[in-house]
Amino acid sequence: MLRELLAIFRSDKPLARMGENFAEMLKLTYEMTVKAGDLYFADSVRPDEQTKIYKTDVGVNKLERAIRKQVIAHLSLHGTSGSLPYCLLLMSLVKDVERIGDYAKNLAEVKEYHPDPLPDGDALVQLREIRVRVETSFAETAQVLETSDRERALAMTREGRELTHRCDALVEQVARSDYQARTAVALALGARFYKRTAAHLLNVLSSVVMPLHKLDYYDEKEIDRDTDEDESD
């Protein structure tokens, strides 16, 4: 279904403008995620740096509302019922991308609770690695969506699931550590927010590998079964 939606985005139909807005949302939330990571791992932060993320988030929210309005206006026209499945898909994707922006904002806010540099150690090393993997996956997700690359989406889904499990393990590791409360909270929140970002990216990727009624659902056995059914048709 994503392939058909992309075809509509590239056409002269009203949905094309929605596609442009969605692409801009992806771009802005990616930039927010990278900037939030810079702030989270920084030794010190200027207030204006956090303000920039808030302003970008406002722009993301405006784009989400614009897309909703465009969808409603489009579906109110006679003869557009055939676009309904694609509009539902777009609405689901838009919500996930908007949530990624929220988690970027949350990650940047951790510095308010822990203004000092995060302590060196295994937890910080793991968090830096998790950050790289999340940002790399985010950058590649836009390309996978553009090309509807099912095989790469499947591989990234499996990688993303492993990454979310790693985030959970890190939270437990921090909970069992002897860090001071403020430091433990900062590290646990970092792992948690990166997990949620990765999870919403998985939801977006599910649009490439799953039918509409199974969006946000990426059980490997289910994916493999659907793949076999598609190949047998």
- What's the CATH topology label? Methane Monooxygenase Hydroxylase, Chain G, domain 1
Helix content: over 70%
| CATH class designation | Mainly Alpha
Strand content: under 5%
Radius of gyration: 19 Å
Mean pLDDT score, rounded?
A: 84
Question: What is the count of distinct domains?
Answer: 1
Order of helices and strands: HHHHHHHH
Poorly predicted runs of 5 or more residues: 226-233
Total number of helices: 8
Q: What is the SS-derived class?
A: mainly alpha
CATH architecture: Up-down Bundle
**What is the makeup of the main sheet?**
none
Give the overall shape, derived from the CA principal axes: elongated
Topology, number of strands: 0
Q: CATH homologous superfamily name?
A: Phosphate transport system protein phou homolog 2, domain 2
Distance, first to last CA: 16 Å
Task: Explain what you see.
This protein is an all-alpha fold. The chain has a single domain, classed as Phosphate transport system protein phou homolog 2, domain 2 (Methane Monooxygenase Hydroxylase, Chain G, domain 1, Up-down Bundle). It is built from 8 helices and no strands. The longest helix is centred in the middle third of the chain and has 30 residues, at 84-113. It is elongated and about 65 Å long. The two termini are 16 Å apart.
